Amino acid sequence: MSSPGNKRARHGGFTLLEVMIAVAIISLMMITVYRFVRTNLVAIYTSAEIVAERQETEGLIDFLRAQLEDLPTRQPGALLGKPEKFHDLAADEMTWLCRAGQGVLTTSAPDEYRVTLAIQPVEKSSSELEIGLRRQATNVDEKNYNWLPLLRPAAALEIRYYDSRLNAWVERWSDANVRPTLVQVRVWKIAAEAPLEAILPIPSARTQMLISQPGQPMPIPRQPQPPKRTP
Question: Could you tell me the CA-to-CA distances from 75 to 64, 96, 116, 139, 207 in Å, in that order?
Fold first, then answer.
C-alpha cells in the first residue's frame, strides 16, 4: 500500500501532455500578439506615408499659388500654357515669368527667368516620372535650361485655365495680352488613384485687364463651374 507521501510526490509535477498544452496556448497567444502589433505597425507606416505624400503634393500647390500671386503686373506673356500627353496621360505644361530668388528657388541671380512646370521621366530610360521646373534666363536659348525636381513619383499633371470672357475652362492659354482669372491644377501621384486638385486665383489678371482697357468698367465674370470631364 502506498503511503500519502508517495502519492503527493507522484502528483507534484506536470505531465507531458499538460506541458504541451501550455506551450501551445502560449504560442497561440504570442502569434496573436505578433499579428496585432504587426498590423498596427503597417497601418501606422501606411498612414504616415500617405500623409507625407499629401504634404509633398500640397507643398507643390502652395509653391504654385505663390508664383501666380507674384506674376509681373504689366508684362505681356507672363503666363502661358499648353496641353501635352505622355503615355496617354495628361502631361500639361505651364510657363510663367519671374525674377530670380524664390521664384526660381535660388538665392540670387541676374535677369528675369522663364519657368515651366512640367512632368518628365526621372532619367531618359526611366519609366518613373517626376514633376519639376525648367528654369532658364529669358535671354538664352530655349534648349539650355536647368531642371529642378519638385515631386516624385508622379503619374500625370493636368492644368486648365478659366477664361472669364468665355465663362469657360480651356486647356490652352496662348493669349499674351490677357491672363486667366483662375488656374486649375490636378496632380496624380498614381494613375489609378484620385488626384489632388486645386483652383488657384491670379490676382494680377484683374489689374492687367484694367491696364489694357483704361477707362472701361471692369467686367465681372460669372461664377466659374468646374470643367466637365468624360469618364
Answer: 19, 11, 17, 16, 11
Q: What is the three-class DSSP state of 170?
A: strand
Amino acid at position 223, single letter: Q
pLDDT tier, 55 (very low <50, low <70, confident <90, very high otherwise): confident
Give the closest residue to 61 by CA, choosing from 208, 223, 224, 189: 189
Distance CA 159, CA 47 (A): 28
Helix (H) or strand (E) segment spanning residue 230: none
Residue 69, CA distances (Å) to 16, 48, 87, 166 in order: 79, 31, 32, 23
> C-alpha grid cell for residue 92?
500639361
pLDDT tens-digit map of 95-152 = 998 877 665 666 556 567 889 999 999 988 888 999 999 888 776 666 667 888 999 8
Which three cell numbers, joined as nine digits, stand for 29?
497567444
For residues 124, 98, 104 and 88, what is the CA-based torsion angle, rounded to 10 degrees?
Answer: -30
CB 97 within 8 A of CB 75: yes
Helix, strand, coil proportions of the chain in percent (round to 5)? 30, 30, 40
Nearest to 167 by CA among 216, 94, 227: 227
CA distance 179 to 5: 103
